[in-house]
Amino acid sequence: MKKLLMFAAVVAAMTLHAALTPATLFSDHCVLQRGKKLPVWGKADPGATVTVAFAGQEKKAKADANGRWRVDLDPLEVSCEPREMKIAAEGATREEIVLKDVVVGVVWLCGGQSNMTFQMWPAPRIGQQAGREMNGYYDVMLTDAPLVRGVSMPQCWSAEEKDHDTLKWFTFTPANAKNGMTFSGAAWHFAVRLNQALKIPVGVIESAWGGSCIETWIPPDGYAASENFKEFATRKVITESTPEEIAQAKKKGKKSSRHQQPRACWNAMIYPLAPYGIEGAIWYQGCTNRGRWQQYYEMLTALRNGWAKRFEVEDMPFFLCQITPYSYGKTEATDAGDTQIREEMERFGRSNGNNVGCAILSDIGELDCIHPGDKRTVGTRLAALALNRIYGKKELKCDAPVFDKAVLSADGKHVTLSFQNVEGWCMKGAYEPRFELAGADGTYKAVKSVIKADVKTIDLKVPDGLQPTGVAYMRKSCVHGFLKNEAGLPLGPFRGTVEAASK
User: Fold this and answer.
1) Mean pLDDT for each 10-residue chunk of the chain (503 residues)?
2) Residue 334 is part of which domain span?
3) Which segments of 258-408 are extended strands (E)?
4) pTM for this one?
5) Is the domain of 384 the same as that of 440?
C-alpha cells in the first residue's frame, strides 16, 4: 500500500509540470538564420527559468503563467560546423534538451498549394506533354549536400492558433533519399541552387496544401492591415461542415473539410513556425483563386505583410511563381479570363521594391496537366531572384521581359512593342508567338510578328482594315509562351493599349 501511495505521488508530481518543449522547428539538424536576432521559444513549467546555450552565447528567460518562454540570441555568423544547442529548464524539476548537428546559414519558408507540394519523384505519368521532365530521382540520389536541409509541416488546420509537435529536419543526402523523394520539388531545387552559389547552409521549410486558397494562409495581422478584408481578421473559423458540403465532397470521392476558410491553415501550419528566424518566403499558389483574381493583389499584400510581422522580418523577401498555362478544361476559343490572375502576379512582383519578385513560368506549363513536372526550372528561377536581389549576385540575370508600351506607326501598318529587361530575343524553331490586336469593339485578332535576335522591340503587322486600340500576348490560358530574352527568361502574358505615333 505504501508503495502504491508513493507511486501515486510521483505520478501526481509529474502531472503538475509541463515538460520542457522547444518550438516545433527546433530539432536535430536544424538550420538557424544568420545575421539577425534569433528567437528561441517553447514551453516549460510556469515560472521555470529556461537557459539556451549556443555558439558561446547563454540567454535566460522565465516561463510565464502559461508556461511560455522566449529568448533572443544575438545575430549569428554563418557556420558549417555541426554544433549543439542546449536548452535547460529549472522549475518543478530540472530538464535539459540537447539539439545536435545545428548549423547556421539562411532559411526560407516555402508555401502555397499543390505545385509547391509537388514531389521530387512523383509517380510517372504519360500524357500529351510526356517529353517534359517528370522526376527528380537522379537529382536526389546524386546530390550529397549535408548542409542543405528541409523540413515539412503536415497538412492540418485549426479554428484557433495552436502549436504543433516537433518536426524533423533532414539533410539532402542519398542516405535520406526517402525524405528527398517526397519533398517539394520547387523548394528542393531552390535550396540546392542557393547552396551551390553561396556555399553556406540552406534550410527550407515546406508548409503547403494542394488546392488551398490564399485566404486560408493569411494571419489576422495581414487581414487587419488590409483595406477590403479586415473582417477576416476576426471571422470565426467554423469547424462543422454543412450537409451540402459533405454531400458535395462525397460526390467527388473526398472527405469534407473546412480548411479553406480565412486563417484556418495559418492557425495550424504557419503560426507554430513563427517567429523562427527566416530570410524570406517563396510562394507557389493561385489556381484556386482564379475566379477571384480581382482580389489577388491585395491578398498577396496581406499575406506578405502578415508573415513579415509574425516572423519579425522587415521588408520580408518574397518571391512568387506565376502559375503556368493550363487549359482548365476550356477550349482555345474560350476566353475564360484565367490569364488575369497571372497578370496580377507579375504586377505584384514588379511593384513592391527590390525584395519582391515573380518567376515567370509561361514556357513550362503542360496544357493537359495542372502540375507541370519541371520543378527544376521553377526552383532555379526563384533562386536567381533571391541571389540577385538579396545576396548581391547582380551579374546573374533574374528578370523576365516586361511589356512597356505599344505604338502604332504613322501609316497604321504595324505596331511596335517595347519592353524592359530585354537586350535581345531568343527565337529559334517554328514557334509563332501568340500576339493579338483589338479594335474599338474589343475583338482580338491573331497577328503576325517580326522578331529579330539583336533588336529589343517587336513589330506586329496590322491586318487590313483594323484600327488597333489594344494589344495582348498569351491572352488565353491554354497557350504556351516560348518567347525569351537573352537569359532564357520568358515573356509572360500581358494586355495593353496601343498609342498613336507621336507627330
Assistant:
1) 45 56 98 98 97 98 97 98 98 93 98 96 67 77 98 97 97 98 97 98 98 98 98 95 83 83 98 98 96 96 98 98 86 66 96 98 87 93 98 97 96 96 87 93 94 92 95 88 94 95 69
2) 105-389
3) 280-284, 318-321, 356-359, 402-408
4) 0.93
5) no
